[in-house]
Amino acid sequence: MNPHILVEGTIIDFDCYIKRFDDYVIIIESGTLITPELAKTINQNQEMYISIYEIDKVNVYTKQYGVDNFGIESKKIRTVQEMLPIALTLNEELKQVQGFEAKIEKVYQTTAALMEAIFHEMNETLPLNALGECTEGLIDCLNIPDISVIPVVLRMMPHEYSTHHHSTNVAMLSIILGKSIGLKKEELSDVAYAGLVHDIGKIRIDRYILLKPTSLEDDEYELIKRHADYGLEILRNNGLENQKVLDGVHYHHEKLDGSGYPKKLRGKRIPKVARIIGMCDVFDALTTRRTYRSDYSSYEAILLIKQEMAEQFDEHYIDAFIRLLGPQ
Length: 328
Ligand SMILES: [Fe+2]
Ligand SMILES: [Fe+2]
Known about the structure:
328 residues, mainly alpha, Hypothetical protein af1432, two-stranded antiparallel ribbon, 3% strand, binds fe (ii) ion
């Protein structure tokens, strides 16, 4: 957005960022009074950015002070209601699509849009059938013999972090890893479903903390950790009974050496689905750009996991992932 929309003497109720190299750095916090000195300093910046979740607040501000909100890029997020018919007919539609790249693209876009709607609305009543359709579509596209799908999938994943893309990525990576370690279709379905909803508990966490571009305070981190328990609760409340999926979501932050949460489980006491999606979760987090650091390449990320997190993840899964990525 253009810095000139900030009016002297007003207090803003949204955070403003500037881009420094690849990172977004907060320059003015919500609650700040725009003094003449501050206005002068910020006007020297060509561009400022706001979080997509605060566009509504900026629109109210610009209307209130009669300034033009030109330069604000906004994107329409579809509602769950709008996404339902699209997701529920996904597998029918996929039959008409030729070529596996085009199929993956279609499933990816539909699944990510459904997840975006769910996270945006924060409604704890989940469209389980639609999520099931997306899971099925992901498996059908990715569980194909003799074709290496990982380069296509990695190319497709956006490098900017967002929870809905992250959820879709983790589901896809979990299917690919699961397939490479010989999981059967039913087990693939469990890892895919759990991967898709693994962070669903975050709909109960304050967005301010989730989107905080600077590092978290200890108490804020403790709040975020609760998403593992919340996820289990939300899925159970929706009547989901598949214990493997429930365990996968509940324990996706457990680590083999007992350093994880919420129960500090060790080794094989961590259910297999949770171990698979847990590794894909970390891989995706490392390869996407966060506001406080740049992303790693796929190979750098897996090497980092192998070298520095070997105690936390199954060696067998790490090596399978390295083989999937192929010679570099
Ligand atoms: Fe998580
Ligand atoms: Fe995650």
